[in-house]
Write a structure and sequence with these properties.
Elements: H1 17-28, E1 32-35, E2 42-48, H2 54-66, E3 72-75, H3 84-89, E4 92-95, H4 102-113, E5 117-121, H5 136-144, E6 148-154, E7 159-162, H6 172-181
Parallel strand pairs: 1-7, 2-5, 2-6, 3-4
Antiparallel strand pairs: 6-7
Amino acid sequence: MNLPHVPDCIPTRKYGVLHSMAKKILTWCGWTIKGELPAQSKMIVAVAPHTSNWDFFIGIAAMFSLQLKVSFLGKASIFRWPVKSILAAIGGIAVDRNNRHGVVGQIVQEVARNDKFILGLAPEGTRSKTIEWKTGFLHIAKQANIPVVPVSFDFVKKEIFFHPAVYISGDIKQELVEFKQVFTDVCAKNPQAV
């Protein structure tokens, strides 16, 4: 499997046997990974459309294949024994929705604390059909001054595509409209949920 180049500045992690297994699984299933990863040490990777649990497994396989070190958000309540250390080890960040800084503020602080940081998320915020996507990821990107990299999972083409990075600088509602247009021709696992 040919993989996009991963610039040295991007946070990576050695996954050992999981790296080669993930590449083989994606190849056997007919998936490819295309596009370019930006030469940025900090970014948000926004994956869409998100309509199925399969999205998670495809995303994990891509992460292992590219050996990316990606963090993800989880409610603080799930970060308890016996899974707390496992979640933290694979990149989980516990967020407290009652924190006075809010989730956006907590993540902006997390970005500032790290020299290298990738936050992976699904902007829809749910696998169910939704009209409006969440805007929190755009607020994080704007406040932390980091790019958002749209990543599409096309289940017809069996293609994971890294689109050009976007910097968020203006009106969040308008930026969201423009951001969603990147995914217009992408076929989700469950298109009826888009």
